[in-house]
């Protein structure tokens, strides 16, 4: 039995006569029993018709009834009639829907005759099901709750998901509806609003069950069954998206751009300014009287239903972390492309990403690391921490052995790089890597050339310099991609090793973010102090190696 009260009857009848489908009637009556949305819509329609049938039978014959004044007139005879009707309703209140006459009133038959269309398969899909009564296209949902809550449609959704071959344990259903459905719902709400007020019903528009929620209640169980009993939850890593469109009524929203222009502003990645959020905002602002001038109540009856677009599947990103060593002085960290032309055959990013993307069957990836090295700089020691975001992966988990195999594949594919500690991590853990970019220390070894001949004693004083603060203006070589600024960086310690009269090795431990090359050659005085000033001669850097990046992440994996 429907959880409706006697005072709901006029509202139900008004909604049905306006062209609302049975499920939309439940929504407007704030019915929260999910099972009622899952039952065949023909059954719900019959229950609603039976529910209001005694209201029809108690209505005076048109030829003998006293003319009923317009509600706005406030005539006292109208109040008396309403009071009498309330008494009649209270006398009939104990009767259930199953006790109604088998012969439905003439008014209800007219309502059925006036509706067109079919929903024989909605909510059932069994071959033995009896023929469905003729139904028209709903003026509010435009067929979404009629034609797309059937087992047939659920089967199509499930087949689309299976074709994509994702690995998942649970699913989240997302629904995208045409923005004009909000306008139609608002129109129908205004149509029954006065009826509710007269019956002392305290409902507000926000009490209406949302169309998205009602649709999910109707169909999610069917989709779950077709997918082998998978759980449909409100939070899941795997999302199945359904989108509906209805081009013939796209213009329903257009009047709002004139009445509430500040709600509609062009946004990036949006084909139209009439987004669902913008339309809802405008409907909250527009006065009822102004709305009624521009849009009919109830909404006009549609000649077609919404069309279902392609099913979209999306899995949240999987994050893979590790450390990489770079042994080549002719390999960029990321693809080096200038004016559309590749400057290098490959990159650290691509050498790592290709085996990972293939294993996770992802649609793309994003690479990040704790700092970066130049093309001609090697990264030695334990390597540099990095993370790879696998976008929309079809596989959501790999075993430790599979991850180890991917690591071996990367290491054997090229002698230019090697990776270690490859593992799946959470998104929250990514912050540990970013901390190392500015807060941690890094160690380097530089091969320095001097213009004048030197001896060992000429450079030994560098070992005694501690906590040297540098003022580094943005280097000329990176000025095209970094803002012009003066950044203070600290060299914690240095150690010089004599090689020959014009060369020595300089080992440095510095604050992360220190430009080592610019400290050595001075960058035309943009870094102060610099090695040229300390040695009182011109110096330059010939080779540079990153010896360590002191970030304790990701965790070391024992061999």
Walk me through this protein's architecture.
The chain has 559 residues and is of the alpha+beta class. Helix content is 34%, strand content 22%. The strands form 3 sheets. Strands 6, 9, 10, 11, 12, 13, 14, 15, 16 and 17 form a 10-stranded mixed β-sheet that branches. Strands 1, 2, 3, 4 and 5 form a 5-stranded mixed β-sheet that branches. A two-stranded antiparallel ribbon has the order 7-8. It is elongated and about 110 Å long.
Show the helix and strand layout:
Blueprint: H1 9-18, H2 22-28, H3 34-38, H4 41-57, H5 76-92, H6 106-114, H7 144-147, H8 151-164, E1 170-176, H9 180-198, H10 211-226, E2 231-232, E3 238-245, H11 254-259, H12 276-285, H13 288-294, E4 307-308, E5 312-315, E6 318-326, E7 337-338, E8 341-342, H14 348-360, E9 364-369, E10 377-391, H15 400-413, E11 417-425, H16 430-438, E12 441-450, H17 456-459, E13 466-473, E14 486-500, E15 503-511, H18 516-521, E16 527-528, H19 531-535, E17 539-549
Parallel strand pairs: 1-2, 1-3, 10-17
Antiparallel strand pairs: 3-4, 3-5, 6-10, 6-11, 7-8, 9-10, 12-15, 12-17, 13-14, 13-16, 14-15
Strand content: 15-25%
The separation of the N and C termini measures: 66 Å
Rg (C-alpha, Å):
36 Å
Question: Which word captures the global form?
Answer: elongated
The mean pLDDT is 86
Number of strands: 17
Major pleated sheet:
10 strands, mixed
Structural class label: alpha+beta
Q: What's the helix count?
A: 19
């Amino acid at each position: 039995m429907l959880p409706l009260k006697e005072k709901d009857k006029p509202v139900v009848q008004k909604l049905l006569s306006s062209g609302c489908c049975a499920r939309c009637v439940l929504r407007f009556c704030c019915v929260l029993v999910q099972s009622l949305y899952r039952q065949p819509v023909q059954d719900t329609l019959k229950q609603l018709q039976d529910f209001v049938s005694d209201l029809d039978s108690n209505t005076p014959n048109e030829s003998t009834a006293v003319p009923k004044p317009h509600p706005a007139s406030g005539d006292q005879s109208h109040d008396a009639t309403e009071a009498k009707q309330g008494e009649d309703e209270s006398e009939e209140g104990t009767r259930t829907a199953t006790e109604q006459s088998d012969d439905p009133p003439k008014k209800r038959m007219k309502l059925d005759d006036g509706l067109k269309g079919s929903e024989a398969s909605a909510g059932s899909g069994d071959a033995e099901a009896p023929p469905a009564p003729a139904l028209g296209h709903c003026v509010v949902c435009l067929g979404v709750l009629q034609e797309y809550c059937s087992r047939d449609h659920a089967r199509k959704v499930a087949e689309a998901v299976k074709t994509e071959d994702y690995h998942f344990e649970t699913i989240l259903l997302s629904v995208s509806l045409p923005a004009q459905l909000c306008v139609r719902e608002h129109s129908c709400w205004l149509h029954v609003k006065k009826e509710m007020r007269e019956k002392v019903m305290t409902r507000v528009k926000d009490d209406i069950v949302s169309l998205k929620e009602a649709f999910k209640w109707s169909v999610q169980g069917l989709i779950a069954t077709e997918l082998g009993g998978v759980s449909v939850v409100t939070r899941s890593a795997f999302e199945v998206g359904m989108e509906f469109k209805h081009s013939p009524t796209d213009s329903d929203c257009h009047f709002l751009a004139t009445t509430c222009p500040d709600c509609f502003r062009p946004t990036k990645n949006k084909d139209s300014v009439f987004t669902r959020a913008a339309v809802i905002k405008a409907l909250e602002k527009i006065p009822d009287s102004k709305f009624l001038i521009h849009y009919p109540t109830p909404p006009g009856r549609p000649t077609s239903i919404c069309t279902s677009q392609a099913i979209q599947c999306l899995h949240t990103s999987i994050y893979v972390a590790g450390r990489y060593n770079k042994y080549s002085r002719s390999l960029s960290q990321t693809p080096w492309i200038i004016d559309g032309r590749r400057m290098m055959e490959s990159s650290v990013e691509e050498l790592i990403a290709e085996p990972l993307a293939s294993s996770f069957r992802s649609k793309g990836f994003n690479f990040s690391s704790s700092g970066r090295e130049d093309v001609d700089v090697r990264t030695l020691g334990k390597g540099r921490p990095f993370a790879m975001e696998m976008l929309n992966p079809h596989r959501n988990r790999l075993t430790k052995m599979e991850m180890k195999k991917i690591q071996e594949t990367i290491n054997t594919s090229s002698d230019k790089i090697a990776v270690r500690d490859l593992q799946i991590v959470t998104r929250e853990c990514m912050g540990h890597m970013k901390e190392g970019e500015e807060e941690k220390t890094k160690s380097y070894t530089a091969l320095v050339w001097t213009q004048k001949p030197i001896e060992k004693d000429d450079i030994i004083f560098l070992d005694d310099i501690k906590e040297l603060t540098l003022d580094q203006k943005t280097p000329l070589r990176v000025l095209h991609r970094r803002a012009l600024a003066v950044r203070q960086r600290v060299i914690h310690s240095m150690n010089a090793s004599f090689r020959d009269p014009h060369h020595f090795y300089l080992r440095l431990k510095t604050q992360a973010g220190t430009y080592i090359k610019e400290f050595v050659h001075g960058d035309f005085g943009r870094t102060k102090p610099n090695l040229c000033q300390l040695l009182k001669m011109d110096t330059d850097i010939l080779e540079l190696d990153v010896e360590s990046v002191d970030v304790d992440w990701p965790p070391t994996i024992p061999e």
